[in-house]
Amino acid sequence: MAGQTIDALGQFKLHPLFGEFGKSIGFSQSELMMIIATVLIPVLVCLGMRRKAIVPDRFQAATEMCYEFVHDMSLSTLGPAGKGFFPFIFSLFFFILTGNYLGLLPFSFAFTSHIVVTVTLALLVFIMAIIVSFKYQGLKFFAHFMPEGAPVAMAPLLVPIEILSYLSRPVSLSIRLFANMVAGHVMLIMFAAFTIMLASSFLGVAIGGFLGIFPIALNIALIALELLVGALQAYVFAILSCMYLREAIGH
């Protein structure tokens, strides 16, 4: 198998869909997956709550648990104002979660592995937090950039630092999600390719039998890890968004 190369980053390349029409409007597999996620989330919620049974079945119970999880997160972080922001946090959390999980399906694409998508989501949260800050705080919003109790003489040093720290929020928020998704998918394809190469090599034939299960078990464990990371990154993105909005409401 000498001379074979593994293009681990090839999975992130965008390819126009639907021929010349898709090419002319820049419609790729990333946009397709985002549309699927946008449609899939409300469809699943509606199907889950269709029966409205007092004693729910598993599907309804799972839907109610998802609803209550994000609802509790919004209220515990934002307080009573969390009710108003709950639809936004719910949509944000499950859009990212669905994107992370769709990318694990064969012949699919993880749109959260593209920096332009994660930056757009982070900027959406960032701009909303600024708008909410002006709504609830007015011009007191600018007090963010001067720590309370600090000497006025330190303002020329502290204010630029605070502004830079504030502006770095969408950067850290977007890169965290992007980097974890890219790293996870690269790791998956590297180990999967290694397993295939090992199986077709002389060493793989020599190992054979019972020991040949270990590479497959390792890949299954990596997929389980990606499922955990996908949920964790969606949660981190949502909880940080709640914290930024909480700061915007109450300084």
- Per the principal axes of the C-alpha atoms, what is the gross shape? globular
- Number of distinct beta strands: 0
Decide which structural class fits the backbone: mainly alpha
Largest sheet: none
Element-level helix/strand string: HHHHHHHHH
Strand content: under 5%
CA-atom Rg in angstroms: 23 Å
Helical content stands at over 70%
* Mean pLDDT reading: 84
Total number of helices? 9
Low-pLDDT stretches: none
Count of the separate structural domains: 1
Terminal Cα separation, in Å? 61 Å
Quick structural summary:
This protein has helices at 19-25, 29-48, 58-78, 82-102, 115-137, 155-167, 169-199, 202-207, 213-250. The protein has 251 residues and is mainly alpha-helical. The chain has one domain.
Reconstruct the topology from this structure.
Elements: H1 19-25, H2 29-48, H3 58-78, H4 82-102, H5 115-137, H6 155-167, H7 169-199, H8 202-207, H9 213-250
Structure write-up:
- It is built from nine helices and no strands.
- It is mainly alpha-helical and 251 residues long.
- The chain has one domain.
- Helix 2 crosses helix 3, helix 2 crosses helix 4 and helix 7 packs antiparallel against helix 9.
- 22% of the residues are buried.
